[in-house]
Amino acid sequence: MMSPTSAELHTLTVTQPAEGVVLVTLNRPDRLNAMTVTMFNELEEVARSLGADSAVRVVILTGAGNAFCAGYDLDDAEGLPGLSPLGMLERQENAARALAAVRAIPVPVIAAVNGAAAGGGFSLSLMADIRLGSPAARFNAAFVRIGLSAGDLGASWLLPRLIGPAQAADIAYTGRIVEAEEAERLGLLNAVTGADDLLDEALAMARQICANSPGGVKLSKRALQANMEIDSFAAALELESRGQALLTRCADMPEALAAFREKRPPNFTGR
What span, in angstroms and rounded, lies between the C-alpha atoms of 68 and 72? Predict the structure, then answer.
């Protein structure tokens, strides 16, 4: 793995719980894993490093302790009004770049939401392709409660696409807390796990993904993300057709067909 080691990081830990699976843990439990400039910088660095590592097949993102991420650290936020407009824009773009880097990781990202995901932490959870939550998971767009807009760090673009514009408006305008059961019903969580098996369930899903063709999974993610941003059905078909044509020229499809004929598990290489 090419990612920075946990010894080099101050706000994250990076481990490998299974072959091809990387676990990134927000590691400020005493502050409910609240975000700082350092965390944004480290998230971007780790995300880009993982994205460049061909051995990484799935990334799991979670929080240490009892929270996923409580949003921007209010101790840091106290200094925001003193920044110039351009200084604030630079700070905001630094945070946005970090979260965009997480979403841009070319392999599936599973958010294992173990507690509160508030404000920027809510936005961070939306960067994942799949969200699993413990019964303690809860979400809120806390921005309106501190004089800011819920249009922050991609939330206004991703949330309506995930749960629909009316439900997104409810959450954005009220700033209310969405508990795990409701989050699952809305589609914000793919599933609610048991109280003590969140990471086990996330790892089980990661292993299921790792059993498939690396190229097929990567191009599936690319198609799903790209087709969220185009308006034409014809353009979506064109993108899908190009992906399928490319994958038939790779080694994994012939291997899958041979494995099916020979009644054995396929040995995917991603080449």
Answer: 12
pLDDT (mean) for 16-45: 97
pLDDT in tens, 141-187: 988 887 888 888 999 999 999 999 999 999 999 999 999 999 999 99
- Tell me if residue 230 falls in helix, strand or coil: coil
Q: Where are the domains of the chain?
A: 12-210, 212-262
Q: Which residue has the tokens 């198609």?
A: 223
What is the per-residue DSSP string for 103-154? Answer: HT-SS-EEEEE-SEEETHHHHHHHTSSEEEE-TT-EEE-GGGGGT--S--TT
Token pair for 31: 């502050």
Euclidean distance between CA atoms 70 and 68, whole angstroms: 7
Pairing of strands 21-26, 12-18: antiparallel
The pTM of this model reads 0.89
**b/e map 207-246, b = 16+ CB within 10 Å:** bebbeebbbbbbbbbebeeeeeeeeeeeeeeebeeebeee
Residue pLDDT, tens place only, 65-99 = 999 999 999 887 777 778 788 887 888 899 999 99
CATH of domain 12-210: 3.90.226.10
Give the tens place of pLDDT for each residue, 222-243. Answer: 999 999 888 888 877 777 777 7
Q: Give the neighbor-by-neighbor strand order of the sheet with 21-26.
A: 12-18, 21-26, 58-63, 109-113, 130-133, 191-192
Kind plus residue range of the DSSP H or E element containing 243: helix 233-247
